[in-house]
Amino acid sequence: MAVDPLIELRDVNKYYGDLHVLRDIDLTVGKGEVVVIVGPSGSGKSTLCRTINRLETVESGTVALDGRPLPEEGRALARLRAEVGMVFQSFNLFAHRTVLQNVSLAQVKVRGRKKGEAERRSRELLDRVGLAAHADKYPAQLSGGQQQRVAIARALAMDPKALLFDEPTSALDPEMINEVLEVMRQLAREGMTMVVVTHEMGFARSAAHRVVFMADGRIVEDRTPEEFFTNPHSDRAKDFLSKIL
Ligand code: ADP
Ligand code: MG
């Protein structure tokens, strides 16, 4: 699809010591696009996600958000980073705060909203992820799937331009996976720009505009789900698909 670019990585290279973990990465994610990243363990998927919002520095290349290069550090970086929400495998909720407080805290601290305004917005978002009735509970009182939906509401509360998901359902019991994927599908339908690392190939087929296949720190294929799943070009992708499908 012809789209306005939101996230642009150009010729990005990253090393951990001697390990060349991202190699010549060129990736553009357009506004409203859903890009699913797949690939074997250790191929650099998480590192790529963290690179997109500069939780990791890179040795060469550029990362730009909405046409602006990401600054190296400082307040400008913090501001831009807040525009890209991140949802991890482990939900990282504050255990001693209620669900409502978990969704509200950063709105006050990062976005400077008044407490009442933040809580109003939090309740709206909790309603959107199907958790309106759980606002006053603590994370431990919720299932894993519910906790992950709180984490999604918390990310949305920053009004991000894009959301990154790094294996958001990998820590969940099977019966909870779908409720989280359904929230993600809904966000996709509403036009949220999303980069999603996942092993859920059903989600990739149904929700992704593009599938990016990584191996050994490189993007090996970047194609529509239809093309990727029915006619993978590379031996690496064929081998990967034969193991998981
Ligand atoms: P994936 O998410 O695809 O499994 P990662 O991005 O987590 O891959 O890791 C890519 C490679 O970088 C792996 O070989 C991993 O062991 C290595 N790696 C990841 N994080 C670090 C780190 N903080 N320090 C050193 N090596 C790391
Ligand atoms: Mg990973």
Automatic annotation (TrEMBL):
Record's subcellular location: Cell membrane
Catalytic class of the enzyme: translocase
GO MF assignments: ATP binding; ATP hydrolysis activity; ATPase-coupled polar amino acid-transporter activity
Keyword Cell membrane: yes
UniProt superkingdom: Bacteria
InterPro entries in the cross-refs: AAA+_ATPase (IPR003593), ABC_ATPase_HisP-typ (IPR030679), ABC_transporter-like_ATP-bd (IPR003439), ABC_transporter-like_CS (IPR017871), MetN_ABC_transporter-like (IPR050086), P-loop_NTPase (IPR027417)
Enzyme Commission code(s) on record: 7.4.2.1
Topology in membrane: Peripheral membrane protein
UniProt main location, coarse: membrane
Domain ABC transporter: from-to ranges: 7-241
Keywords from the named record: Amino-acid transport, ATP-binding, Cell membrane, Membrane, Nucleotide-binding, Transport
PROSITE patterns: ABC_TRANSPORTER_1, ABC_TRANSPORTER_2
Pfam families cross-referenced by the UniProt entry: ABC_tran
Cellular component terms per the entry's GO annotation: plasma membrane
The keyword Cell membrane is assigned to this record: yes
Reaction(s) this enzyme catalyzes, per UniProt: a polar amino acid(out) + ATP + H2O = a polar amino acid(in) + ADP + phosphate + H(+)
PANTHER family: AMINO ACID IMPORT ATP-BINDING PROTEIN, GLUTAMATE_ASPARTATE IMPORT ATP-BINDING PROTEIN GLTL
Family: Belongs to the ABC transporter superfamily.
Identification of the protein by name: ABC-type polar-amino-acid transporter
